[in-house]
Specification:
By secondary structure, the chain is of the alpha+beta class. Helix content is 63%, strand content 7%. Strand 3 and strand 4 (98-102) form a beta hairpin. The chain is globular. The structure holds zinc ion. The site of zinc ion has 4 residues, from helix 6 and helix 7.
Amino acid sequence: MNRRKMTRSQYYAAKRKQRDKENEAKKHIAKTIEEYKGLASSNIQSLAKYPDIIVYLREKFPSIDIDYENVDITFAPPYRMKRDFPGAGGFFFPDLKELVISGDTTLRRNDYCKRILESCLQDDEVVLHEMLHFVSREISSMKTSSEYEEEFAYTNTIPYLRKKGYSDSKIIENYLMAYCVQGVLPQVLREMKQPKLEGQKLKVFIDKNENIIYSKAFDFGLKMITEYDVRNNNVHDNEEKEHVGRFSTLEL
Ligand SMILES: [Zn+2]
């Protein structure tokens, strides 16, 4: 409705303003990462420390050309991560091609629903997750929905975790659970006639209904794994092609 009232130049001015805002935010993130790197309590590692991850990514995405050995990972002090990027256990920053991860494994996840989201994530598992965001950006520089991004990163970690000897149940419980809870929550809230809960009230709701949310989220995880397996068998284990294909149709 607003759009129709705007003149063309107003529209472009608004767009420019939005872009400026995004650039400001990016500059701020870059500055924060630089700060982290200067802190004595940060631990800076090279991805070369994780040869299994490099082998896994090269095998899975052979046409992607990333200089893996030179990717830096900053394990930042948890109190800073909590303050500067609340809710994020780690992230990939495309502008600098850098990984930033909370140095404390117990703080790497959303902190609501303690039993459900108690973290058992190992360093390599978080590193691989963030690296898959990196790979996804290399496959297509186009911004995709964050939902799609997360699904890509979570599902493409499944074979790696299996190789580590995790059963599918353990993969769901330890690794996919946070994502699955987010996936089922809107439906649970609707079913229980609480569609608009937020913040502290949402936390209380989740704590109170932990069992039902957990079991629904577990089923969601099973479905995710099954669909991933089916998709991979269908495309003869060449999901990278499938992924690129999906994007090229969009680029018409
Ligand atoms: Zn992610």
